[in-house]
Amino acid sequence: CAEEEEEEIIQEANDGATLEELQETATLRRCAAFTLDELAKIYKGNLFVIISPIIDKMLSQDNWIIKESAILGLGAISIGCEEAILPHLLKIVEFLFAALEDLQSHIRSISCGT
Questions:
Q1: Is the Cβ–Cβ distance between 96 and 71 less than 8 Å?
Q2: What is the pLDDT along the chain (114 residues), one digit of tens a residue?
Q3: By CB neighbour count within 10 A (0-12 exposed, 13-18 middle, 19+ buried), where does 53 fall?
Q4: What is the pTM of this model?
Q5: Nearest C-alpha neighbor of 76 from the set 51, 99, 108
Q6: Rounded to an integer, what distance in angstroms lies between the CA atom of residue 21 and that of residue 2?
Q7: How many CA atoms lie within 13 A of 6 on its CB side?
Q8: Would you tell me how many other CB atoms lie within 10 Å of the CB of residue 26?
Q9: N or C: which end of the chain has fewer CB within 10 A?
Q10: Longest CA span, the chain
């Protein structure tokens, strides 16, 4: 059931999409990551307290798109929230290493860059 739903989301995202639409999506992702990065630099640990439960919930999802987005977000806040992340670093690194064996290549790829 979840796999069918996932495939449907991917097909809807790519079906009939023009190159311009695909580039717009990539740009939107970059803007979102940049915004998280800037917010993390300003609000530091205060942002981490708010966003970490959301990221934790997203990381436990079966849908790879949601999980990949959470890893992207984690990477985006990592520098600005460095002090707040340090106590959780072992858990994060263990998760990222395990994600390197994920069946979905996007999860493996984003985990390498985070």
A1: yes
A2: 445 544 554 555 555 666 666 566 677 888 899 999 999 999 999 999 999 999 999 999 999 999 999 999 999 999 999 999 999 999 999 999 999 999 999 999 999 988
A3: exposed
A4: 0.78
A5: 51
A6: 26
A7: 12
A8: 10
A9: N
A10: 45
Do residues 70 and 32 lie in contact, with contact meaning Cβ atoms separated by under 8 Å? no
CA angle 101/11/26 to nearest 5° reads 70
Contact criterion met (CB below 8 Å) for 77 and 47: yes
- The residue assigned the tokens 């985006």 is 76
Going from the C-alpha of 88 to that of each of 24, 31, 80, 94, 109, the distances in angstroms are 34, 26, 15, 10, 22
Cβ(95)–Cβ(85) below 8 Å: no
Q: Look up residue 110 and give its amino acid.
A: I
